[in-house]
Amino acid sequence: MKLDYENRTVTYRQSWLSNYFDCPEKARRGLLEPDADTSTDAAILGTGLHAYAECRLLGEDRAASMAAALNALDIEFGQPHRIVQKSEVQVYDWLPSQCAAWERDILPQVGEVVAVEHNFNLSLGYIYDDAIDMEPDFVPWEIRLSGQIDCVTTDTVWDWKTWGREKPAWEQQRWAVQPTVYSFAATREFGFTYPVNFKFGAIIKAKANPKPQIIPVTRTDLHEQWLFDQLRGITRQALKLGFEDEWTKRDQSALCSADWCVFWDTCKGKYL
Ligand code: SF4
Fold first, then answer.
1. Concatenated DSSP letters for 120-174?
2. DSSP-derived 3-state class of residue 30
3. pLDDT tens-digit series, residues 188-199
């Protein structure tokens, strides 16, 4: 979330939004302490796989793509990261088999590619709020969405994942915000019309025999309208509350744990 007070624009990055829906306080602290809000080494395995997929989709051969994936790990492990779930050696060790599974089980199903790692920053709409905008000729706040789409084909928006377990498809259809954001972007930038076909192309992590899971998700203009409604609320809350005081702390998911939240030690971890 980035507030530009001068131009009255608030930009939501898809990843921050997912964080917010997990726990608003984690999202707030991530803005105040960006250096602390670093990746886990389990997530770094996904970064390596993304690098491999990007290279393959751009026409590189398998060897060059694997080299790029390993290089991505080198860069990530050169950054500070606070949460270690696996050893660094294990991440390097597992990467080739995850990439091989993506190559074997997902790549043949991707379709005709029109864009890879596509960045977007688009206007979703404007909010008018008398409670915020007390001056007589106020300018409305613009809500924008930004992110990076892994792959767009002629008829599908793809996102690559590395998951620790298979996920129920209905959960993604019902709750996932990423397909809504990316489908919106596809309608504005790639001529897609609703309903938009989005797919998670996931590798279920395993050392020797990782399995694929492709989950199709459909998004309509009503999902877009609901997202705008949600963002209006988040924007009003942020403008009124500011960022100095704590926001709601939500611990009703496995992501509120020492393994997944970098703020654990100074938050729930102080107590339990
Ligand atoms: S420890 Fe739990 S409640 Fe606290 S910021 Fe992290 S996810 Fe939120």
1. EEEEEEEE--TTT--STTPPPEEEEEEEEEEEEESS-EEEEEEESS---HHHHHH
2. helix
3. 999 999 999 999
Entry pTM: 0.93
Say yes or no: CB of residue 264 within 6 Å of ligand 1.
yes
Which pair of structure tokens corresponds to residue 48?
A: 């390596």
Atom in ligand 1 nearest the alpha carbon of residue 253 = 7
Q: What is the mean pLDDT of residues 159-167?
A: 96
Show the DSSP H helices in the chain as ranges.
14-22, 24-32, 41-57, 62-77, 88-101, 169-175, 178-189, 221-241
Residue 81 has pLDDT above 80, yes or no: no
Backbone dihedral angles phi then psi of residue 16, each to the nearest 5 degrees: -65, -40
The residue whose CA is least distant from atom 4 of ligand 1 is: 267
Rounded distance from Cα 32 to ligand 1 centre (Å): 14
At residue 252, the 3 state secondary structure works out as: coil
